[in-house]
Amino acid sequence: MPKVHYRACNLCEAMCGVKIEFEGTRVLSIRGDEEDPFSRGHICPKSQALQALYEDPDRLRQPMRRVAGQWQPLGWDDALAEAAQGLHRVQQRHGTDAVGIYLGNPTVHNTGAMLFASLFTRALKTKHRYSATSVDQLPHMLTAYWMFGHQLLLPVPDVDRTQYFLVLGANPIASNGSLMTAPGIRRRLDALRARGGKLVVVDPRRTETAERADRHLFITPGTDALFLLAVLHEVFVTGGVKPGPLVDGLELVAEVVQRFPPERVSAATGVSAEAMRTVAREFTQAPSAVCYGRVGTSTQAFGSLCAWLINVLNLVTGNFDRPGGAMFASPVFDPRTLPKALAGGRGSHGRWKSRVRGLPETGGELPVATLAEDILTPGAGRVRAMVTVAGNPVLSTPNGRQVDRAFGDLEFMVAVDPFLNETTRHANLILPPPSPLERPHYDIAFHLLAVRNTTRYAPALFEPGQGARHDWQILLGLGKRLEAARGGGVQSALKWRALEALGVERALDFGLRLGPRGGLRGLTLKKVQQAVHGLDLGPLEPVLPGALQSRTGRIALAPKELLADVARLEASLVAPRVPGLVLINRRHLRDNNSWLHNVPKLVSGAGRCTLLMNSVDATALGVSSGQEVRVRSRVGEVVVPVEVSDAVMVGVVSLPHGYGHSREGVRLGVASAHPGQSVNDLTDDQRVDGVSGNAAFSGVMVEVAVEG
Ligand SMILES: Nc1nc2c(c(=O)[nH]1)N[C@H]1C(S)=C(S)[C@@H](COP(=O)(O)OP(=O)(O)OC[C@H]3O[C@@H](n4cnc5c(=O)[nH]c(N)nc54)[C@H](O)[C@@H]3O)O[C@H]1N2
Ligand SMILES: Nc1nc2c(c(=O)[nH]1)N[C@H]1C(S)=C(S)[C@@H](COP(=O)(O)OP(=O)(O)OC[C@H]3O[C@@H](n4cnc5c(=O)[nH]c(N)nc54)[C@H](O)[C@@H]3O)O[C@H]1N2
Ligand code: SF4
Ligand SMILES: [Mo]
Question: What angle do CA 319, 346, 124 make, to 5 degrees?
């Protein structure tokens, strides 16, 4: 008899409710859960990967050890012991900082890893911590720390109530939203326009989202901070400034802004002064408005200035912490209220620097753009061993060929990952966790970023295979053995044993009871679990000033580090223009970073790893769609087919990221048949956001030449 299981899909930030029909240990179908109060039946094609990942014959089901280039299976106890011993040996020989760790994006979508990974990271006692944060949203987090006092006080656009939605560098129709959990975003954007609201998209490509907008403005990659300053200039000039009583530093911002009239930045941005004035006027006159920027604004050379100015625009126009503006979610499980050991605390910056280039630490991590040089450059403190958890930095971080070489140069490596891929092939040991359907799920990260307050928990649908270990069990097991190898004694052993006994459900239950809203509503895991479709807790509510965690209890509108970076931006206005094309990246609805290309349903159809090029540039080059070109940057080159499209701006070319599966030694049967090329073989590890050190993927200069 078929049965039904309900859960939230954990593959992207949207948290869609899914209804899974199954029989025994077989999935029969995966559909949208119409009764989920938040997603109301919406799903995307990637939802089918929940089944595919469970069934994938390439997914590793037991630990693997690499000996003389050959992979051998081994038991969990041996694997964990060998892994811990190997890490301990490197730390004994070269010091504790000689072991580095990289946490990839799926850790944030994994309940157990979210709850317990930081305990393992602390046990490593290393300053060489890296994560996907610094190829993604680091500027948003650093700015939040400086302005609001906590790196996770990330404002969310109240898309369901706003009357004016200004979107920069995001394509939610393809990505399903980021730092904006909004399942069924298409429906939400349609509703915005149906109620008379406006959608304006600023992007060097006329994206799927821009296609549905009232207005699309092409912008030269990397110039959004100039655009925002000019819009703010108009807001100040036209008297649209009405910040709330909590804001400090308005006069400092006013002083900066007056230096950037639209005429001054129009040529650099490629946006007309008139269009910037119109945006400013519409923004201030709308009954409510919100500016939102994502990957295109944070993964560029002025990422932190962008994140800052987006907040400034929302704040000074009075569109902050009120319906229709930028608001804070109030999750019932709130990592912002958890002890520092578990959730990383309010944030930090510059407590230490990377050993080669001197890039600053933020929130306890170094920018991953420095990882390869931290491994490859001889000298004191060099990274000699790595642990990767749910990450694929060879494909996902800048100058991937160099990252590849660096991983090949390590003395020892442990990968916690279900696949033998471009990065994990360098490991001495791979420790694979089970697939999403084989574990309970509660979204710890994304309720924090959601456009509506809801909550939802699901138990595991299937028992994981015999003896399988979850991410959290693997990490606690490694931590326990590492400390034992150091002679940690009884106290250490008891600590790890207590954590193992605590487990995911009990930790969740504690968190729910402790949370500010959980306490009020008497929420327990049991109550959340009983509501199989999730619980609706209503629209976002104003939370200021109570939610602020700054020492002053107020909002710092003009952090000094950001003000200081404006000079660099100003210098970019007069920098000579280098000839060539400018590279940007894109996402497709059926991709998920580097790791769902082994799902047959998601890679069918025409190849998607093409170089989008405007017809003006294609004509100048004498190239047409389908023809192969060689794309060259300072660090490398790839050969890819061109797709002529006037959806990209003249002078700009676009490649998707996450491809490049033809490297030797990967065990991804389906992906290897659709390998594509890695855009990060072109992106430059030396190009980073000047404040946070986040990778600057957008705006890489490339030369394109016809192949053959
Ligand atoms: N289908 C799918 N969904 C995903 C993912 C995926 O790989 N595939 N990845 C997930 C992850 S990890 C994340 S972080 C989110 C990201 O979610 P989004 O931020 O929505 O991601 P993108 O689709 O990459 O949108 C970035 C946009 O920025 C534009 N852009 C590039 N440079 C600039 C610039 O300098 N200025 C401006 N204004 N725009 C610029 C690009 O053309 C692109 O349209 O998506 C998540 N969802
Ligand atoms: N040029 C360019 N580069 C980019 C981007 C871009 O837009 N342009 N986007 C950046 C962004 S936003 C992000 S978030 C990063 C992502 O970068 P990464 O996080 O480094 O890479 P992913 O491709 O997400 O790879 C995820 C890995 O986790 C494994 N995995 C999946 N689920 C689990 C699990 O539950 N447990 C464990 N242990 N492993 C699991 C997969 O097998 C895979 O190896 O890429 C970044 N790189
Ligand atoms: S939009 Fe995201 S959460 Fe929803 S079904 Fe697709 S991958 Fe899953
Ligand atoms: Mo991301």
Answer: 145
